[in-house]
Amino acid sequence: MAEANGHLYAELGELARYLDTTLRKLDEAGAPIATMSGQLPQAASHLEGLTKLTEEGTHEVMRLTEELQDSHALIAGMLSKAVVAMGKGQNTPCVACLLRESQQLVAQDDKHLIDSRQRLAGTLTQAADTLTKGQNGNCAACAMTESLRCLAQDDKRLIEIMTALSFQDLVAQRVKKLTTIIHDVERKLLELVVVFGLKHEGTSPEVKTDASDMLKQLNASNSTAMKQNLVDDILGKFGFN
Amino acid sequence: MPADPAMKILVVDDMSTMRRIVKNILKQLGFINVEEAENGQEGLTKLKGGGFGFVVSDWNMPVMTGIEMLRAIRADEAIKATPVLMVTAEAQQENLIEAVKAGVSNYIVKPFTAETLQEKINKIFP
């Protein structure tokens, strides 16, 4: 009997030590868990912000692409008219005007698709010069047809740019799934905090981790980041021109 | 019968970027009469308003998903014949089978090209 009691006390002692160690470890883990559970909503919010940023950027690229497409449609229309007019042997100076107008439109696009636009602009200039000098009309017609072909190729590229932008939708869908996972982890961490009475933010010293540093940087980029005009204003006050 | 360029088309997607992409490609393909809806519920309401000849829809959307909208379309005598093209990131076989069972007219997986969209439209409107 005494031996059995001794064994029982030894077992109980072991159990008590185990519980004590567990509670101490839990206490040590408490602060990071509590901090982490506090950081997760902010991380989720930044992820959602990422979706918004990519969406805004994508719309801007789309806007510019659509402007190029509209401009191309105008140029193609004028070139086609010019080709038809030449075929009918009509007024060549009028055709030259159309070409010059097309060339001006192309020049507006130069900043967007420089190489391709420059080639096209060169071809159009050549065609216009040929016409105004009264030289071989067929040659000018060929140049215009070639210009139309270039435009059609560029239009295809522009559609490819538009479709490639569907990456934003895929990114947004994945971000949404990640946000859902983060919210789930956050909920489970909060349950741990409540069940085990872990110390939460404010009552425990902040646990400094890489994650907390990065979160601070992200918060700063949202709340304190300066726009270029403000930077320029401040630089101006220091004598920068 | 080939697709009528004047046909009224409804693009249903919760992402504004995707709606704009599909609309742009449709415009390049010659379809200029395109309307948009942000989810299945809004899409269904517009469809019931009448006049639509074709629907291009996403799958995952809030309020009402694309597959729910498809089932509702097929269950509504007035609009049940409207062709529905599903354009979605849901690339699992079971999704495709579910869509086919629900009566989808064709199925495109994102990301996709303008050629794919044109090819599917040609198949729907031979």
Characterization of this structure:
The complex is a heterodimer of chains A (241) and B (126). Chain A is mainly α. Chain A has one domain (30-215). Chain A is built from seven helices and no strands. In chain A, helix 1 (2-87) packs antiparallel against helix 5 and helix 2 (92-109) packs antiparallel against helix 3. Chain B contains five helices and five strands; from the N terminus they run E-H-E-H-E-H-E-H-E-H. In chain B, helix 2 (40-48) runs parallel beside helix 3 (66-75). Chain B has one domain (8-121): Rossmann fold. Chain B is globular. Chains A and B meet through helix 1, helix 4 and helix 5 of A and helix 1 of B.
Give me some keywords for this one.
heterodimer; A: 241 residues; mainly alpha; 7 helices; 0% strand; elongated; B: 126 residues; alpha/beta; Rossmann fold; five-stranded parallel β-sheet; 5 helices; 5 strands; 19% strand; globular
Short précis:
By secondary structure, chain A is mostly helical.
Radius of gyration of chain B, CA atoms, in whole angstroms: 13 Å
Number of domains of chain A: 1
Percentage beta strand of chain B: 15-25%
How much of the residues of chain A is beta strand, in percent?
under 5%
CATH class of chain B: Alpha Beta
Number of separate helices of chain A? 7
Helical amount among residues of chain A, as a percent range? over 70%
The oligomeric state is heterodimer
Order of helix and strand elements from N to C terminus of chain A: HHHHHHH
Q: Count all strands of chain A and give the number.
A: 0
Average of the residue pLDDT scores of chain A: 76
Q: Biggest interface between protein chains, with counts per chain?
A: A-B, 21 and 17 residues
End-to-end separation of chain B in angstroms reads 5 Å
Mean pLDDT of chain B: 92
**Which of globular, elongated, flat, extended, rod-shaped describes the shape of chain B?**
globular
Instruction: Report low-confidence residues of chain B grouped into runs of 5 or more.
Output: none
Structural class assignment of chain B: alpha/beta
Distance between the termini of chain A: 95 Å
- Shape assignment of chain A: elongated
Structural class of chain A: mainly alpha
Count the E strands of chain B: 5
